[in-house]
Amino acid sequence: MVEPAQAASHSAERASGFKATWLDALTLMLIAGLGLLHLHAAFSGDQFLYMVGAKKLAHGGVMYRDFWDLKQPLIYYIYELAGRVFGFTEAGIHVFETIYQTLFAAVLIRVCANRFAYRWLASLVPLFTIGAYYGFANYLVLSSVEAFAGFPIFASAVLAAGAVEGKPGADGRAFAAGVSAAVVAALKLAYLPIVVMMWLVPLFMSLNGRHRVRVQRFLLLGALGFVIPIALAVLAFAAAGALETALRTTFIDPPEIVRHLTAADRGPFKSEAVAFIRAMWPLFVLALAGAVWARPRTDAFKLQMLFWTIAGCALIAAQEWSFYYKFFIVVVPVGVLAALGLEHLLSTVNMRRDWTRAVLAVALAAMLASVGTTAVHMQRRWALWDRENRAYAASSIAFLGRPGARQGPIYVFGHPRIYYFSGREQAVAINGFSPQLLLGAQWRALRDELAAVAPVYIFVERDGYVPVAPLVRASPQLTALLASSYRVAAASSDGTWYEHR
Questions:
Q1: What order do you get walking across the sheet with 486-491 strand by strand?
Q2: Residues 461, 431 contacting (CB under 8 angstroms)
Q3: In Å, what is the CA distance from 490 to each residue of 161, 197, 457, 499?
Q4: Which of 47, 113, 488, 489 is most buried (CB neighbours < 10 A)?
């Protein structure tokens, strides 16, 4: 094996250039293969909702005006792009994400190539990060906001560090770091503090008289890169007449919603965190070794990954909905730290006896076996989740397939997969997937929209993600609308269909 000093020397020789290897190509093929294995993975409620909104946007709609959700808009426009190119199907979205994650894997290799003493280990970093994501992601995680957010966060971190350190093209790096930060904010504003933390690491490491001008220039160009795309989005929403709603949805409504949520609406942070760590414990063990022992301890890249992990977990804990899939926002930094931890262990055993190497090999084999077992188990569940989706949809939409059923858009208080499997459009802008998040003004606006559009059918789910029916009955405006303009057309254990009179 290569000695650490020799490996470090080889790494230094590579500092001025990058040469792809056969192992790089193999890793990218493996990542693409993992993505294609998930081609027919079932969607969850959020992904079906993104699809409903994306179809609205694809037909000329504008986010917040023609389709309303509490989330930031970019995830819907990503689904619109994916749908236009590959089709508005589960497989189409997964194909798009496979390409996206493979591109991210190539960037990871390029960035890590000069940061690891062992070049071959840099080639495997995507397996520790994106590979772990594909291995442990359930139907709630795939193609989620967290799945797409890792790439721009990582890009902003690396670009910021390069700009502050004065690497070639520093000005362009600073501007691009700002643009990447804007992408993160447009995906999920709550994750913007992670980017801020990523910027602060190299800034604090460079705060001295010699680098002060460079730091100031970075802040100016980085801020410019952030403001320009945000300003363009603001102008676009203003031109479409959706700016007021977009601003209210982003900054005013969330605190109000949090205040009126009940304990049943909040995600349990502790149990979800335990489930995440239990699934990915081999990576966490190696990541701990990387965080504590890997040298140099003051390396900006390593510190960025460490603070990303800490900040990500803190933000998840602070959110009201700490579900399992949210923890995947830290899978990238944990995977990078795990690779650094493995590098440290390999460097250490080079100086020890053969039995130490054997113990390490057995431990690593056990970890990989645990990862593989979990991944195989998850793959087997795709078919189960798909059957559950289709069985629910078949039962719920049987009413729409009967002879004489009226055509036209419908409205669903409940799971958005009914739109997907029935082929019907959502009749109005405000979605009914999470009615517990609607404020009083939104309930009134929803009633007015339904009264104006008069969808041919309204479905009220009985027991779903949340108990929908009691929330609908608790709204005087909707109760009056259903009583005056609709009649009960069908009822089952899934819910009640109301038909416009």
A1: 410-413, 457-461, 495-500, 486-491
A2: no
A3: 61, 54, 11, 9
A4: 47
- Taking the C-alpha atoms of residue 155 and residue 178, their distance in angstroms, rounded to an integer, is 10
pLDDT at 469: 87
Same domain membership, residue 412 and residue 337 = no
Half-sphere CA count of 274, side-chain side, radius 13 A: 3
Kindly state whether residue 407 falls inside one of the protein's structural domains: yes
Residue 129 maps to a domain: no
Residue type, 479: T
Residues 496, 404 share a domain: yes
> Which pLDDT does position 351 carry in this prediction?
57
Establish if 295 belongs to a structural domain.
Answer: yes
> How many domains in the chain?
2
Across the range 388-410, mean pLDDT stands at 87
In angstroms, the first-to-last Cα distance of the chain is: 79
Give yes or no: residues 344 and 413 share one domain: no
Could you give the maximum distance between any two Cα atoms of the chain, in Å?
Answer: 83
Task: Return d(Cα 194, Cα 304) in angstroms, integer.
Answer: 10
> 333 and 411 share a domain?
no
| pLDDT reported for residue 397 | 86
Whether the ω angle into residue 296 lies within 30 degrees of 0, i.e. cis, is yes
Which of 115-119, 207-211, 294-298, 345-349: highest mean pLDDT?
115-119
What is the 8-class DSSP label of residue 115? T
Q: Given CA atoms 249, 252, 253, 254 in this order, what sign does their dihedral have?
A: positive
Q: How confident is the model at residue 83 (pLDDT cuts 50, 70, 90)?
A: very high
One domain, residues 341 and 420: no
Report the predicted TM-score, pTM, of the whole model to 2 decimal places. Answer: 0.93
Q: What range does the domain containing 412 cover?
A: 399-500
Residue 455 has pLDDT above 90, yes or no: yes
Same-domain check for residues 407 and 496: yes
| Res 444 pLDDT > 50 | yes
Q: For tokens 């009649």, name the residue.
A: 487
Confidence band of 3 (pLDDT split at 50, 70, 90): very low
User: Who's near 267: CB < 8 A, 6+ residues apart?
Assistant: 319, 320, 321, 322, 323, 326
Q: What share of the chain is helix, strand, coil (3-state, %, to 5)?
A: 70, 5, 25
Same structural domain, 333 and 419: no
Name the β-bridge partners of 412. Answer: 459
Compute the distance between CA of residue 205 and CA of residue 208 in angstroms, rounded to an integer: 8
Q: Within a domain: residue 162?
A: no
